[in-house]
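Task card 7
Instruction: Convert sequence to structure tokens.
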Amino acid sequence: MLETEIHVPLLLFLTFLGLAVAVLSALENRVQWIASLCAYFGEGCRRTAEFTLLSIPIAWWGVGYYLLLGGVIIGIRPLVFWTVMAGIGVELTFLKIMATIRAFCIFCLLNAVVVVLLFLAVFDAARLWEALSIILLAFMVSDYLISRENRAKTAAAPEPEETTAVAEIEGEEIPSEKVEKPLAGRIYELKSQMYKLKREQLDEIITKRLVQKEADRKGVSVQELVDSVLSEQKKEKDTAPGPMKTLPTTDQAEGALQGYAETLRDRYDVKIYLEEPDLPFTEVSLEGSPTRGPADAAVTVVEFSDYLCPACRQAHEITREIKDQYAGKIRWVFKDFPLPAHEGADFLAVAARCADEQGKFWEYQDKLFAAEEPPNTEQLKAFAEELNLNLDEFTQCLEKEAHRSQVESDVEEAKEAGISATPTFLINGRMKTGAPSVEEFGKMIDEELEKAKV
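Output:
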């Protein structure tokens, strides 16, 4: 193609520019100054960096694309037009992702500019329909593959709430989310307590009104109806086996009356509009965290835990059952949140990360949670031997505390996300503090799996 031949120096320059942008994007989670630059523009870079294709981060696909394009420009110039148009189609998928998750990524924007310039450099009006066909095909294929593999990341985000300023310093606003997000867990607890109080009061009112309506229907007084209900309960107790045949206590009487009122709800068409508060939504980075399960799972569960937390030890048995029950359907991500009150928990977290270097994180974690007493250094090494780890490598890693920065990063991220207690679970971003039962955990996962089908 003659026009492409003329623009070879320009194409190579733009390809190099695009490669530089892709490399910077791929290193965002590994180089501090790049991460700081991205953070200046918000969380968009971090969120888009978590998207993958065939379990490979999207940014690395960008690096591969520009290397391929450079090779095509140098050696197979007739394919330059097709390669650039395919890149346009894939870039449209990235822009769609940003719109879907409502996040701004500076590197995605810079890459879009490079791709547009490449498009202008090779565009030929005579090949308009060919260009549109390639762009559309590349968009459809990339959108299907990337969306399918990253369903949990695109489906979990709720509608954004309006952000208002709660303070101002020399004209610079402090948005409400800066105050509310780190307190998300505690705010939810307060809302739950308020809901519980309201629900108890509402149930009491409903019970009284139902009893009144039923008394009116039967043509008796409320007291006569109440006496009748309690009399029936006493007869049932007197005929039941056992030595206790006494009058019901006040609590038992109230319980009997509430139970009786429950049987009247369908007859009088009771509808409850008081809603339980939604679980708070938050997001954390998954980069560098121990993970099990398919990367394209519709449900991602992120666990924040502490190896010396009694509640976490109990929850571990529940999570093991859940992981087995939903094997192949969910992705499980573990993050460390050793509490200051549990001295030495941070060192145990480092040890587990050292085991992760040799592919035995989950097995090592089982041993930490199962330990009856806080393990000392020698016991940590003994666990490594039992799992057939390379003891020299493990010991060196442990002595250097090679992964302490990762543990500390998890702690800071937990605080920023509003997590204040262990264990805490994020089910597609929905925060659940404390250990749910197997049934409750399964219900939350099933709800998210059902959403993914829509």
